[in-house]
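> forwarded from #structure-qc
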């Protein structure tokens, strides 16, 4: 099992989504579950049971001959109850450790859940800052950090300049400077407008830059005939 940990907007969900898309095939199916503050063990169990079938007796699992990969996004968001436990995390830990969970309608029935595996993502700056080590020890944890300025410049220059290849030469030259200007502006805004208790919505990350260039990539040569318009 693998866990990606990093700030908002670093592409954790996108990386896992791309991996799951490439995984495909007939042998492996996947199920994405998004955690939030109100997710408890009952809500999680209901979602975990949707893609599995009864096999025989107390045995349950994905369709015969297949493996099931659960992707748990925002693992650490659920509320912490009175005794310091995040109940959905306790349920996951029980499943991975023992391969079982109890039937909610018949507590005497302990279901054996086979052929399942987990992947997870979480933002350490949101939700609970402490994840039960009894669960975390079961994952290989990878840190995802923000790309460097040089890397971002290369990424967005590739997209924008490739799109502007149909435009006139002056507009193409402006495009190169716009990438640098956008990155510098984003850096200044993030440094000036700090996140505080009263301004908790000040969260400037790569998504905002992507939005800027996503809009520019919709432009057509007829709309941008001169650098000033761009």
């Amino acid at each position: 099992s693998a866990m990606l940990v990093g700030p908002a907007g670093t592409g954790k969900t996108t990386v896992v989504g791309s991996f799951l898309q490439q995984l495909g095939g007939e042998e492996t199916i996947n199920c994405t579950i998004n955690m939030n503050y109100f997710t408890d063990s009952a809500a999680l169990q209901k979602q975990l049971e949707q893609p599995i079938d009864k096999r025989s007796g107390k045995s349950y699992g994905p369709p015969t001959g297949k493996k099931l990969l659960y992707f748990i996004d925002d693992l650490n968001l659920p509320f912490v109850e009175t005794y310091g436990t995040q109940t959905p995390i306790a349920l996951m830990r029980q499943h991975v450790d023992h391969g079982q969970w109890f039937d909610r309608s018949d507590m005497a029935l302990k279901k054996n859940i086979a052929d399942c595996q987990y992947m997870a993502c979480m933002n350490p700056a949101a939700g609970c800052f402490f994840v039960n080590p009894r669960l975390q020890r079961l994952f290989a944890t990878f840190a995802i950090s923000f790309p460097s300025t040089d890397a971002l410049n290369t990424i967005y220059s590739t997209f924008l300049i490739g799109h502007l290849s149909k435009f006139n030469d002056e507009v193409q030259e402006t495009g190169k400077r716009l990438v640098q200007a956008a990155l510098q502006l984003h850096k200044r805004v993030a440094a000036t407008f700090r996140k505080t208790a009263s301004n908790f919505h000040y969260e400037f990350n790569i998504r905002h830059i992507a939005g800027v260039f996503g809009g520019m990539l919709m432009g057509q040569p007829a709309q941008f005939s001169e650098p000033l318009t761009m």
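QC bot note: The longest helix spans residues 169-192. The mean pLDDT is 88.
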